[in-house]
Amino acid sequence: MRVAIFTETFLPKQDGVVTILCQMLEALEQAGIEVCIYAPPSAPTQYRSMRVFPSWGPRFPLYRELYCSMPTLRGIRAILAFKPDLIHVLNPTFIGTAGVIMAIVGRVPLLGSVHMDIDFYVRQYAGAWGLPIAWTFFKGWHNRARLNLAPSQAMVDQLRCNGIQRVEQWVRGIDTSRFRRKSRNETLRTTFTGDKPDALVVLYVGRLTEEKGIDTLLPLCNNPRLRLILVGGGHDESAARARFSHTDAYFTGVLRGEDVVDAYNAADIFVFPSQSESFGLAPLEAMACGLPVVAPYVGGLRETLRPDTNCLIYDPAEPAALERAVMKLADDTALRSLLAENAYTYAQSRSHTASMQQLIVIYKRLTHED
Question: What is the pTM of this model?
């Protein structure tokens, strides 16, 4: 089987979509499926054994982490020579539109998958006036697909409510052999606590962008019993550092590999204030490392959060609710340990292996392979 993948985001960018995509590419390679990738201009030209064809185009002015990507002549020739049995388009917008058109013209089965909360992003970066335009656009492309995949029931419902047809849930998971409990890196722990050696380390891992809600973490920095650590980068990183400059919050920048696992294991509580998640991998990663989670019970996060079992939830509309939830864990060591143990047990049931096996079965179904 030969599969052409069109994606609006890829390495070197670091986010949940790229994480899932890399999991997917590794699984496809192991299954003996030939893959070529059509990606943003910043992408490398090779990933593992697969050819990558970077597109061309400027950054998208409303959201600087994306490009207004169009395929190159070399890329068009390559897909014609590749003769894919299936085209899989992730978040069809710019380069994805080219993938949809190529599938239609070439009469190749088309699979679409959604990796963002469309309603939230459009409201955040364009305004509510843009919703009818956005949904008309996405509906036009997604309804050309034989099947559309969404990462959570919340996103399945959102797509169906806005007229997108043939939607199924594609379950999500993490690499539980990588994200795991391990001996605490005491040097890192000392770095994290700084001049507050007895403080509880409250950790955030994710992109430092407006939609992640990290400004709501500012009140935690006023509490002498807590030390806030922010792991990640993004187009809003400089502005985020400036907003926290009067606090003792510690920014690590982007961490990769075992450094991220060490950061999880050096913390006491994981906070995730985002309301824009189609699923949200970071809370599940934190759970796999034995951390209790504090997060709002919204959108795709509901897929992972089990209130008062593996996490504490809070109302994001109430300004003091997040800090109250964190302090409840800070004051109750037994509760913190119980939630951490339950979180770890839950995360072990969410390995990415099942997720990738499901995708390969779908590929075979759409191409009529046994």
Answer: 0.94
Euclidean distance between CA atoms 365 and 370, whole angstroms: 8
Sheet of 2-7, strands arranged across: 46-47, 50-54, 34-39, 2-7, 86-90, 110-113, 147-150, 167-169
The predicted-structure confidence for 139-179, as pLDDT tens digits, reads as follows: 999 999 999 999 999 999 999 999 999 999 999 999 999 99
Q: What is the mean pLDDT of residues 198-222?
A: 95
How buried is 359 (Cβ within 10 angstroms: 0-12 exposed, 13-18 middle, 19+ buried)? Answer: buried
CA angle at 101 for the pair 133 and 139, rounded to the nearest 5°: 30
pLDDT at 183 over 80: yes
Query: Does 180 fall in a domain?
Result: no
- Its domain, for residue 71, covers 2-173+351-367
Closest by CA position to 231, among listed 264, 273, 182: 264
Let me know whether 357 and 284 are in one domain: no
Per-residue pLDDT at 369: 61
